[in-house]
Amino acid sequence: INGHGAIKASSVEQIVDKVLELPERQRLQILAPVIRKKKGQHKSIIEKVQKDGYVRVRVDGEVYDVTEVPDLSKSKQHNIDVVVDRIVIKEGIRSRLFDSIEAALRIAEGYVIIDTMDDSELLFSEHYACPVCGFTVPELEPRLFSFNAPFGSCSECDGLGIKLEVDVDLVVPDTSKTLREGALAPWNPISSNYYPNMLEQAMTAFGVDMDKPFEDLSEEDKNLILYGSDGKEFHFHYENEFGGVRDIDIPFEGVIGNIKRRYHETNSDYTRTQMRLYMNELTCGTCHGYRLNDQALSVRVGGEQGPHIGEISDQSIADHLALVSQLTLSENEAIIARPILKEIKDRLTFLNNVGLNYLTLS
Questions:
Q1: Regarding beta strands 56-59 and 27-39, do their DSSP bridges make them parallel or antiparallel, or are they unpaired?
Q2: Is 142 exposed, middle or buried (0-12, 13-18, 19+ CB in 10 A)?
Q3: What does the CA dihedral 189, 192, 195, 198 come to, rounded to 10 degrees?
Q4: For residue 320, what are the CA distances in angstroms to 146, 316, 317?
Q5: What is the C-alpha separation between 138 and 151, in angstroms, rounded?
Q6: 283, 162 Cβ separation under 8 angstroms
Q7: DSSP collapsed to 3 states, the chain
C-alpha cells in the first residue's frame, strides 16, 4: 500500500487469468508504459519503438501511428505507452494474450496496462513497485520485517523507534517571558553575548517584538524564532571582547536548528553536553515508533485496509489471535498460508491459555 493504492506483483499467468475474467467480446488494448511523467521530447524512445516493429503508441492519452507522433514539449511531463496488441476476448485467445502480455512486460521492464477501451484500465506489474511515483518494495522476506536488520529498520532512527530531538518545552521553559527577558534558555548569555546580540538584530530586521511574551507572539513569529528565516537574510554586526568584528549578511538559523547543528558538529564535549540539556528522546517522526522502514510498513495483512506488522505487534495477544482467526484468504493464499497460520495460532493460543493475553508482541 502506498499513496496510489495497492502495489501487487503478478506473474504473466496471473495477469492472463485476470484479463480472461473480462466479459466475452470485450475489446482491449495491451499497452507497455515506457515513459511515465517524464519531461523531454523522447525522440529516441519513439525511434526504438518503431525499430522494434510496433506501429502505434499512445502519447498523453492520444493514440498515434509511430511515424506521426507530434513533437513533444521539452518542459512538460509526458506519458508514452506502446500499443503491443489489440484483442477481443473470445475462445482460444489465451496463447496470443500470453505472448502479448509477456512482450509488454519485457518492453516496459515489468509493467503492463490493459486498456478496456471504455475509459477504464487495469495496471499490472511483475514487481512490488508503484509506476506513478517509483516507490518500490523488495522481495518479501523475513529480514524486511526486522528492525534489528539494516534491510528492514527505519533509516532515520536506526530501528530504535525514538530519536534524540530538540524539545521545544526545554528550549522555551517559561513562555510568559519575552525574548529580551531570556525566553530562549539556550541563548541566554553565559560567557558571551553573541547569541543575544544576534537574536536582537535578527528580530529587529524581521519585525518581531522583543518585549512581547513568547506565548503571545504569532505562530509565524514563533516559527521564525524556532526554525529560522528560510533563507531570508539580515545584517549581523558583532564585535567580541578581543576586538574581532563580524559584519555579514546571513540567514537566521533558528534556535532549534542551532542546537541540532552544535550538538552534531561540535568538537567540544562541554558544548555537546550543554546542547543535550535541550534534547529529549522523542518518537521517531518517520516510522512513528514502529522501528521499521516504509517498505516494511507498506505491507498489509488481510487486504488494503488491513494493519501492517507494527500495528499487529501492538495489539494484545487476544486481539492478535482474533485477527489471525478471522483472516479471509483466496484459495491459493490459503494453501500457502496454512502452515504459517497454524504455527502463529498455536503460539498465540499457548500465550492466551497461560493468562498472558493482555501482553503485546512488541
A1: unpaired
A2: exposed
A3: 130
A4: 18, 6, 5
A5: 10
A6: yes
A7: CECCECCCECCHHHHHHHHCCCCCCCEEEEEEEEEEEEECCCHHHHHHHHHCCCCEEEECCEEEECCCCCCCCCCCEEEEEEEEEEEECCCCCHHHHHHHHHHHHHHCCCEEEEECCCCCEEEEECCCECCCCCCECCCCCHHHHCCCCCCCECCCCCCCCEEEEECHHHHCCCCCCECCCCCCHHHCCCCCCHHHHHHHHHHHHHCCCCCCEHHHCCHHHHHHHHHCCCCCEEEEEEECCCCCEEEEEEECCCHHHHHHHHHHHCCCHHHHHHHHCCEEEEECCCCCCCCECHHHHCCCCCCCCCCCHHHHHCCEHHHHHHHHHCCCCCHHHHHHHHHHHHHHHHHHHHHHHCCCCCCECC
pLDDT tens for the chain, 362 residues: list them: 545 567 777 889 988 998 999 898 999 999 999 998 888 999 999 999 999 999 999 999 899 999 999 999 988 989 999 999 999 999 999 999 999 999 999 999 888 999 987 777 888 888 777 656 667 777 788 999 999 988 899 998 999 999 888 999 999 999 999 999 999 999 987 667 889 999 999 999 999 999 999 999 999 999 999 999 998 999 999 887 777 788 889 999 999 999 999 998 999 999 899 999 999 998 998 999 999 999 899 898 888 888 999 999 999 999 999 999 889 888 888 999 999 999 999 999 999 999 999 999 98
